[in-house]
Amino acid sequence: MVGPMRLSTVILPVRRWTDGGRAQWQRAEELGFHAAYTYDHLSWRTFRDGPWFGAVPTLTAAATATSRLRLGTLVTSPNFRHPVTLAKELVSLDDVSDGRITLGIGAGGSGFDATTLLGRDETPWTPRERADRFGEFVPLLDRLLREPTEVTHEGTFYSATEARNVPGCVQRPRLPFAVAATGPRGLKLAARYGQAWVTTGDPKLYETGTVDESLAAVRAQGEKLSAACDAIGRGRDEPSRFLLSGFTPEFHPATAARNGHPLSSVDAFVDFAGPYAELGFTEIAVHWPIADSVFAADEKVFERIATEAAGQLNR
Predict the structure, then answer these.
(1) H/E element holding 22?
(2) How far apart (Å, rounded) are the C-alpha atoms in residues 12 and 134?
(3) How far is 93 from 234, CA to CA, in rounded Å?
(4) What's the rounded Cα separation, in Å, for the pair 129 and 157?
(5) C-beta of residue 294 within 8 angstroms of C-beta of residue 230
(6) Exposed, middle or buried, 194 (CB in 10 Å: 0-12/13-18/19+)?
(7) Which of the 8 DSSP states describes residue 175?
(8) Which tens digit of pLDDT belongs to each residue from 172-210?
(9) Is-above-0.90 flag for pTM?
(10) CB distance 145 to 168 below 8 Å
């Protein structure tokens, strides 16, 4: 292990603030989570037809309701964001939180976010175009947050003319990026711009892969990240390694039925997380339980994991 394992949580923005939303973020702080994140989507999969609130307003409210907990997105993408307007919101959010914001950022996918803003004759971006946009999005956002007085950029996809973000971030030189990536282009961006690298594992292995195959795939991703860091002269311990859990075979119902769900007990979670610690991961995020969903779990066990698992992992 290159550092202590930190446990974080993901709170989906599905509850009204006055009907348990505020209390959930405050409870995350009370339980001692390192950070609490939320998805930055217009909606997501099975939650599409139910309540779903905006990430930035939710995080702003969470910042005013907490004092120590780090906060962030997992993840923001170019699917419906522009670097100039996003930078302004992030500077404001970092200010309200007094420097507790991490931006999880990724290239985006092909789901609801990618289609809801399209006109009748428009087609969704291909994976290649998403990667192209991400490759321009991240460096421009980095500049906008590092250079608050004036940024001008004329790109293929994004432009900025004398964009100003005074006074800049509370965190200097800017708030940290946690770059989600598995492909070569994304890993190069993570190596150059990320303070953390985020993976969910190999999505192709979730349904049919084994636990060992999944760990091998994550190990290979990490080796590619290390090679990308070597290529630019960055230390191999940077960026830190971060697993967004819930999407590896351990969480698939068939595997969980055979081996036990990782959130079924503290010991089960430690057994799940231990191999990732051995691979050099220093942060794992677990989804706050939501009944009757893919994230269903016993909330009392979840709270025990929050308060006990890190101590066992860091012995």
Answers:
(1) helix 22-30
(2) 24
(3) 29
(4) 10
(5) no
(6) buried
(7) P
(8) 999 999 999 999 999 999 999 999 999 999 999 999 999
(9) yes
(10) yes
